[in-house]
Amino acid sequence: LKSITFALAKGRLSDISIGIFEKLGYDVSQMKEKSRKLIFYDEKNKIKFILVKASDVPTYVEYQAADIGIVGYDTILEEGRHVYEMLNLSFGNCKMCVCGRPEMKDSFYKIHNLKVATKYPNIAKEFFEKEKKMGAEIIKLNGSVELAPLTGLSEVIVDIVESGKTLVENGLCVFEEICDISARLIVNRVSLKMERERINDIVEKIKGVII
Ligand code: PRP
Predict the structure, then answer these.
(1) Which atom of ligand 1 is nearest to 164's Cα?
(2) Which pTM was predicted?
(3) Which atom of ligand 1 is found nearest the CA of 94?
């Protein structure tokens, strides 16, 4: 019997993801040790887990290097990979937002060629150019995006807001909400065809523990 490979996003979602598999009775003891290992086997249940940088999870699933992935909807939207979204896992809830300094809130949309700093250039481009029909200069950053409007790098940012703590502590606020984000279970379409029964069985079990 071939193993089913799960790609789990490292970082914010990983502990909850591992907790789900623990509840399902899979052997996750090694994964919980926080070693540098990237690949783990549960021989008994024929499951393989790989720990992947969040933005790479859809890539592993699209190319069938993993059969199933757990990743945020933000990453799914940004990466635009060809994967089948099978289940909203309803954890890791947050919102994709346009944010900036409070004094800009009522005037930012009038700025010609608005500068937008973000870890999500595709989402930002789609929102400002397609939805808002505004000219925008998208500036790709890799973290601590909140610094951009504080240093003059950009007028606004597009980023996820979870508790809102990072915004408050840096004197920023939400201008507009783009969409709701949560963790999703994605599946490779060929895997789903070949292993429909096993994958459906796992998905049903996951549904049972997340409610
Ligand atoms: C994310 C996000 C915000 C923050 C939001 O960054 O980009 O900065 O968390 O969370 P909050 O509303 O609960 O404060 P992350 O911590 O992943 O770090 P990064 O900026 O280095 O990417």
Answers:
(1) 12
(2) 0.95
(3) 12
